[in-house]
Design brief:
9 helices; uroporphyrinogen-III C-methyltransferase; methyltransferase; 4pyrrole_Mease_sub1; EC 2.1.1.107
């Protein structure tokens, strides 16, 4: 009997965490999936859009706990596409922003398998926006850096030092374990009073926010027990947020009294 299965892989961005921020195109792709391979940062509520009979495989990575290596994930995508046909690879945020999506697509295409990419709403912009932080604002910040705090060899990105020298907003993902090093780089640039926001589990019901300055944020993180997954935002735009403005007005008044 002739094999009629047509392998296809759709790489889908799951958005920043809130399942309502999933795109309509992503919902349509999930609705016809035979297999869904999903990451730790993809909200599991999104799996409800896939058919009940679809196979759901968790392939997430957390610090010190990888369900599968990247090579194994690549092979799982291919094997499931060849066996079951329509595979959705569901990745947090946007799969092409610190998501290794391009690597997975390249591997799949090397087998001649059809691929489709559905972008997701990136946490780089959506998570700050959830706190009223516009990462660019006329007269305040005309550009922004989006940086991974931890590189593939587990070191702090050298771009952080360059970003600390600029007037741009700096948004750092996967940087909580490098936070003391990040703060030290900004202090070296005499930016101790620069506003900082740390947003943990952004856009979800478990969201936690810590705000302060370069000089105070480490103490705030300790007091509020903030941890990964979180986004670090450094820049004057943090002070401009209507949600956070009250904190900085109070902070400045205390500084004047001192």
């Amino acid at each position: 009997m002739r094999n009629t299965i047509k392998p296809k892989v759709t790489l889908v961005g799951a958005g920043p965490g809130d399942p309502d921020l999933l795109t309509l195109k992503a919902v349509k792709a999930l609705a016809v999936a035979n297999v869904v391979l999903y990451d730790a940062l993809a909200n599991e509520q999104i799996l409800a859009y896939a058919p009940k009979k679809a196979i759901k495989i968790f392939v997430g990575k957390k610090i010190g706990n990888h369900a599968y290596s990247q090579d194994q994930i690549n092979q799982l995508i291919v094997d499931n596409a060849l066996t079951y046909g329509n595979v959705v690879r569901l990745k947090g945020g946007d799969p092409f922003i610190f998501g290794r999506g391009s690597e997975e697509i390249e591997y799949v295409e090397s087998f001649g398998i059809e691929t489709v990419v559905i972008p997701g709403i990136s946490s780089v912009v959506a998570v700050p926006a959830s706190q009223g932080i516009s990462i660019t604002k006329r007269g305040v910040s005309e550009s922004f850096w989006a940086i991974t705090g931890t590189t593939s060899d587990r070191k702090l990105s050298s771009d952080v030092a360059l970003a600390a020298q600029s007037s741009a907003t700096v948004v750092i993902l996967m940087g909580m374990h490098k936070l003391p090093q990040i703060i030290e780089l900004f202090q070296k640039e005499n930016k101790g009073k620069l506003p900082v926001a740390i947003i943990q589990n952004g856009t979800t019901s478990e969201e936690k926010v810590g705000v302060g300055t370069v000089n105070s944020i480490l103490d705030i993180v300790k007091e509020q027990k903030l941890s990964s997954p979180a986004i670090i935002v450094l820049g004057e735009v943090v002070r401009e947020s209507n949600k956070l403005k009250g904190f900085y007005e109070e902070f400045l008044s205390k500084e004047i009294i001192r």
